[in-house]
Write a structure and sequence with these properties.
The protein has helices at residues 8-16, 62-71, 96-107, 126-138, 152-157, 164-176, 194-205, 224-232, 239-252, 280-294, and strands at residues 20-25, 81-86, 112-119, 140-148, 180-187, 211-216, 219-220, 258-261, 271-273. The chain has 305 residues and is α/β, with parallel strands linked by helices. Helix 7 (194-205) runs parallel beside helix 9 and helix 9 packs across helix 10 (280-294). The strands form two sheets. It has a seven-stranded parallel sheet, with helices on both faces. A two-stranded antiparallel ribbon has the order 7-9.
Length: 305
């Protein structure tokens, strides 16, 4: 193990025997939190690109976007394989016919060995679940499911438009179809204290997920959160606080859970605060150093329930 925690990179190398890179794509979809189905404006933290700031250029075909993003990786990894990652907005928010077309087009691209589809727990109808179940039979598939927090008061504050029970229902539906699930949670939300963040991690540790993404709250220009921050200037986590919190969480996550991400980041020019989130590798190195300092590993302090 190259890290003291179970990394996605390590997992993919074991599965495919070589380097595998996620290629972020924009499917041109929207979100029920933006188009008026539930609300307008999206979740308060979400950027104008639907959290797909590093995805391919919206408006281009999947083939064109894939070629565009893949080209950035060729110099460093000329022989890598790829996972097509539908990252922007809600990757299952559309007609089944259109979504199937998108997914199939992505699978046809050179070197693609699987799919990762980011979505909301309230955007998994029976028809979409059937499409995902078929995909899961013929390719390597992850569904990345936004949770952010297990606290309903926090979900309401974020304008998520769903509660924790909605997430549990979606997770159960995906589990019944043997589909891998990666849960997303956000650390550093101003409406939560440290214990509430740990409570979210402890609750997620009990669930039948296969992967997790930890996101550091960062405020991006043009988001509803940026407007709130301009008025309130609420306190944000320091880098040191975030590093300690992440390590505390890694220590209580079962070792079989694959760590897809340990911090969120946005385009440097768009980050308003905290400034340290622009220094991704410094934060990741800090997490490694803190774990080494503690001589700690993922799952070292699993809480028995």
């Amino acid at each position: 193990m190259d890290k003291r925690y179970h990394t996605l990179n390590e997992h993919l190398r074991k599965v495919f025997g070589e380097k595998v890179i996620k290629v972020s794509l924009d499917a041109g979809l929207s979100c029920p939190n933006r188009d008026g189905t539930l609300s307008y404006g999206g979740c308060i933290f979400c950027s104008e690109r639907g959290s797909g700031d590093f995805a391919g250029e919206r408006g281009l075909s999947i083939e064109q976007q894939f070629a565009q993003v893949r080209a950035r990786t060729l110099k460093k990894w000329p022989r890598a394989k790829y996972i097509a990652y539908f990252q922007s907005f809600t990757g299952t928010y559309g007609s089944t016919e259109y979504l199937k077309m998108l997914y199939e087009e992505a699978l046809r691209q050179e070197g693609v060995v699987g799919l990762s589809i980011s979505t909301r727990p309230d955007c998994l109808s029976e028809e979409i679940l059937a499409v995902l179940a078929e995909l899961n039979k013929k390719t390597y598939l992850w569904v990345e499911l936004g949770l952010q927090s297990v606290h309903d008061k926090t979900l309401e504050w974020m304008n998520r438009g769903h509660d924790f029970n909605c997430f549990i229902k979606a997770l159960n539906n995906l589990e019944q179809r043997n589909i891998r699930v990666c849960a997303h949670i956000i650390l550093g939300l101003p409406c939560e204290n440290r214990q509430e963040m740990l409570d979210t991690a402890q609750a997620v540790a009990r669930l039948s997920i296969q992967g997790i993404k930890l996101h550091s709250l960062h405020i991006l220009r043009g988001t509803p959160l940026a407007k709130i921050y301009a008025k309130e200037r609420f306190r944000l986590l320091t880098m040191g606080e975030y590093i300690e919190l992440v390590v505390d969480i890694l220590e209580i996550l079962p070792r079989n859970i694959i760590i897809h991400r340990l911090m969120g980041d946005g385009p440097a020019a768009d980050v308003i605060a905290p400034e340290w989130t622009r220094r991704k590798w410094e934060v990741l190195n800090g997490i490694d150093k803190e774990m080494a300092k503690r001589d700690s590993y993922q799952g070292e302090k699993i809480i028995k329930f």
